[in-house]
Structure formats: structure tokens, C-alpha cells
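Hi there. Long-time user, first ticket. I'm pasting a complex I've been working with (about 484 residues overall). I'd like to know whether the download I got is complete or cut off, because the file seemed smaller than I expected. Thanks.
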Amino acid sequence: MRFSRARMIGLLALGALLAAAVFARVRLAPQADVGAGFVAKLMCSCIFVAGRDAAACRLDLRPDLAPVRFEALADGVQAWVPLLASRTASHREGTGCTLD
Amino acid sequence: MRIRRLQRLAAAAFASLGLAVAADAGELAPLPPQPAGVPYPTQRWPEAAPGLGVDAQRLDAAFDAAFATAGRGGVSETRALLAIHRGAIVAERYAPGFDSQSRFQSWSMAKTVTQALIGILVKDGRLEVMAPAPVPEWHAVGDPRGEVTLDHMLHMSSGLANADGGVGPESFVAKLMFGEGSRDVWAFATAAPLIHPPGTFWAYSTATSMILSGVVGRTVGGGREGMLAFMREKLFDPLGMRSAVPEFDLAGTFLGGGFVWASARDWARFGLLFLRDGVWDGARLLPEGWVDYVRTAAPAPNNGVYGAQLWLNLEPKADQFKPLPGGPRSAISVNGNDGQMVVIVPTRDLVLVRLGEMQTSTWASVTGEVAAAVAAFPAISAEE
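Hi, the file is complete. Here it is re-exported in full:
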């Protein structure tokens, strides 16, 4: 069976995409996991243990953590890198913040 | 000489507990007693004007300089600076947005808290530092890690392949604290294989401190709540560290390698405990000889400045740094990431607390600022 040129290019593109996805999972996911864990833990403790406001806490985070998004919850902080990782740190009175 | 004899007696008493003092106790500067008439700060901190011999102008200038460097958000890099001289607060300053009630993060200063907890259990006869560490995971037949002692780990000389390995997201310490190891730091940290004979190679390891805090938790029992109760009853409450908040992983292990929060005044209380030889207002909290043990350099040949979960102001070996360049030899330092420091100077009856950030400053600039403040205080002993 003969592949048309267009089909060949399509297959190659699909392969490249798959390779990128595997690379992302294997290489970037652990880094994203660490980044999300770092932001969730530090933001949670800064807000709930130190009692500072989220904006001030955010300023203390290193600029290279900018790709990590976060959201303050009622009793913790969720942080994530889209498609790669998400971690939540939960606050408990007396024992601070714990990563899930 | 009376002090030498007392030190030898202390060493002998310590040895009789089944421990050994690693070096000649005679080299250590005497620890000054609490001055008569000055109450321990269990309830409230005594405050005083800088006394006789203190260069108040120089101290003020050092404080000004310490608050002069701004971080990314425009807030001073130094967030809290506190000087305790002869048992009383003589200088205290906070950056805008912070005060004496604010809690600050320990980072690695938590390691010294863990060390104190180990000491408390040694005093109670529940742990022995020279015995194989009570880590069941290492005691299968033929496992060389069975020879690792608490002493090796306190000295950051376990020989395990669990050194911090830098600060990036791929480092061992990042995976331990925030990545794959963070849900159960005990499992992650104890899984490391042995790569050096125990006691022969110094390597800074947050994982090792996590194992030590795990040992404390497993010894006292009761999980997270049991550990919290133990920490409060035996350490935080006696010192009056009412702001202290230790943090835990999901499995319930105290994160003794890096996470305790407390006010600057409470960190100063913790420092004063070491300055007073582990005795607080007449009650011995740490075993006799413990403070001398922890302020004696770990014997591994590649170490010069690390004691037991504590930094010493001695001569560094390759890849180490002096905690207080230009400062007295007698100084010991409880250090944490981003320039957290509780500096204890026996020969000046001084505790200096610096808490804050290191966004635009460096260890060299921060330690320089702290050393400048220390220099305002007079030496009370020739053996600096």
C-alpha cells in the first residue's frame, strides 16, 4: 500500500505530537508537580499560617514560577500547571498546611 | 581550672548516658548563665536599653543597613531583626506589614528544632544517638544501612544517597518537599541506598532531617496529633513559644527538615535555650552536655562548619561556607533558606535573629549585615 504525500505528512505530525506529549509527561510533569506543590504549600502557609494577603505572598514567589496558576480556597490553596500537574495544600489549625 | 573541670564532668555525665562527646570539650567557649534578676522570657520578653559596653550607635547603624535592601515587591529583604543581649531584647525592628506577632517560616531552621526533640528523647532515655537508628526499613539482614546511627544523621554524615543536590525542581530536596516524595517524606527519604560508609562523608541532607523527625514521631506515637502534643508539652510550652506551628505531610510525619512557623520573638526563645545550655528557668530540657555535643564539628573529613543540625563559625571545607564571616569563633547558627538565621554567641551573651527573604540579597550580604550587628556587642570572654 502506498501512502499519499499528504497522509505521510499527517502521520509524521501525529508522531511528533505524540512524542511531545510523551516528553511532556516524562520530562515536564515531575517539574510541574514540584512547581505546583511548591506554590500550593508556600501560598497556603503564607496566607493561613502567617496571615498575610495573597497578593503580598505572591510577590515573594520566584518569577520563574509564573506558569503555575493558583487559587485560594476557604481552607487551603490549589495550584496547577494546565494539563501537567495540580496540587492542593490544606490548612488545619495548629498544624499548618499539608500537601495532598 | 574550674570551667575545664566542669566541662570534663559534663562530658563524663554525657558519656554515662551512653553517648560520646566527639571532640575535646575544652575547646568550646563557656555558655553564659542567665544574669541575676533577669527573668526567662517564658511569659514575656524583658526589654532593656543596650547596656554598658554595647556600641548603641553602631547597633542602630547595623539595623538601618539590614533594612536598606528592598526585595522584588519593594519590601525590605530583612523582615525581622532582633537582638537579645544578657537575656533581654535590646533592639527589635520589623519591615512594614510585619510585627512581633507575625509568624515567619523556618525553612531549615526546623532541623535544629528536630535536633532539640531528639535531645529531649535522649534525656528521657527513649533514644540513643550512638545506637543504630530505629528505622525498620534498614534492618533487613545484610542491609548496610542498619549501621547508620542517629549520631551519623545528626551530623549529616549518614552516607545515604539523599543529599539535597541543589535547589532546582530536579533536585532531591525539591522532590522530597514538593514533588513525588512530599506525601510521605519518610518513605521517600528512607528508600535511599548507602553510598559512603556511615560517618565518613558529610553531605547536607534535608531528607536526613526528615528521617530524624520521623524517628521522633514514631517514638512518641499518636501520629500527627501525638507529635504535636509532644512538641508542645516538651519544647514549645516550656519556652513560651506560643506562636509555633509545625507542619506535617499527608502521612503524618512532622516536616522536621524545613517547616516550622514562629514569631521572631519565639525564634529568639529557641536560641536562648541553646545559649543557656539547654536549661530553662531552672528546668533542664536538653540533656546535660547536649549543647556541647551539637556545637562540636561533625568528624567527617570533608566537614569543618557543621555540628549536629546546626552551623558552627569555624573553618569551612570545600563546598561549605562560614555562617558568620568575621564573627566570633564561638558563634553557632541556626540557618534556613533565604537568610533565616538565629545566631547564638556565647562569648557575647547574645542571640541575634534575622528573618526575611533573599530575593535581591545574597548569603554574603545577609551574613555581613548580621555580623555588623554582632560587632556592636562586647566580648565577655577572651576565648572568642
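A couple of notes from our side: Chain A touches chain B at residues 30-31, 33-35, 37-38, 41, 45, 49-52, 56, 59-60, 63, 87, 94-100 (CB under 8 Å). Residues 5-48 of chain A form the longest helix (44 residues).
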